[in-house]
Amino acid sequence: MKARCFDIVEKKFKEMQNQFPNLLMTLDYDDNDVDLAMDIPKQNGLDFEINLNLQNEDELHISTDYIWCQFFSADSEELVKKFYESAIGLINGEYRILQFVKDDKVYKTFLQKPKEDDWETIYTCYERIRMPWIKVKQNIIQNKKESKLISVYKANN
Q1: DSSP tag of 116
Q2: Burial class, 145, CB count within 10 angstroms (exposed 0-12 / middle 13-18 / buried 19+)
Q3: The pLDDT value given to residue 144
Q4: DSSP secondary structure letter of residue 133
């Protein structure tokens, strides 16, 4: 039985494939853990792999080795739009991942989009508790820009 939001998400995944015809994007209809997935491997034009998926009927996920974003519910047209724009922004290099790190340990991660002369945070992911006296540095990961890649997740876990 198909997930409640399957058709909406499948349509968006196919739109992404059409928007980036030079990138390999594989739809997975048979993943045992999710309702629908699309894997976009690291390749010429994409500096890191991205997994997009629909889980539990209406949860949209963007996962990379550097951030894991969860958007729900896919019943919301506004949320689906935010998910789609975030995925497109990561792929085309307009959006960025901002990590707060010390000794290659990530404490907090933001998914950000440009806003005027600054950045707007779209999603926040907390990795570990940071005591106020722990000094962290910022690490920016952005497609098509030179980045220090500090993994937190494995994208296909």
Answers
A1: T
A2: exposed
A3: 87
A4: T
